[in-house]
Amino acid sequence: MALLPSLSTAAVAEELPLFSAKYDLLRYGITVGESRLALSRGEGDTFIYESRSRTRGVISLFLKDRIKERSEWRYEEHSIQPLRYLYLHSGGKKERRVQLSFDWVRQRVINDINGDAWQMPVEANTQDKLGYQLMMMRDLMQGKKEMEYVVADGGKLKVFSFAVDGTEPIETEIGRYETVRLVRRGGKRETTVWCASRLSYLPVRLYQKEKNGGLRKMVITSVRGLP
Questions:
Q1: FRET partner for 169 with CA separation of 20 to 30 A, picked from 63, 106, 130, 154?
Q2: pTM (global) more than 0.85
Q3: What is the DSSP letter of 163?
Q4: For 125-154, how does the pLDDT look when each residue is reduced to its tens digit (9 = 90+)?
Q5: Domains and CATH numbers, the chain
């Protein structure tokens, strides 16, 4: 499918500037890790979105977990179209490698988990676990209040639903931002995300409440490429 004449790849790319950001990961108020996100250009008309997370602080003396996620994708009409997704979990008791290869001609995705491969059909606009995060930023730019994404995750197609729950100023290590507050609907955990309008709606804070009442947090500590 060709892009609309008024939406060249370059024009769409301007809606999502290339950036990198760093976050602290906290649990029960204690810093347990850090995460780095980066959006960059790939070969040809593709883009690369990466997430790298590792344990930090006292917990890193006992756990050496590292998680890398990498999504290769391109713009297709009004959507982000994933091509390949890679998940690597190393350093822990259980190492895991997941690779997804999307075949949009046949409308299918090939799943490979630790060398065990199979395929399943996918519908148009299906995202991987990183791509939907970028789609959410784009949808907020367009003023959407409710968002729903079909995500290929764990050999299944899952639906991630979010709704705008208001606006809120947020103080961070890198400054004060006006944010849109999103809540996830129907998830196993209660999840709230704050996205800064000045940063192209990049998340600056995420809270996730566990079933036992514990609270996981992700808070931004640095950003490059965005105002």
A1: 130
A2: yes
A3: E
A4: 999 999 999 999 999 999 999 999 999 997
A5: 9-224 (2.50.20)
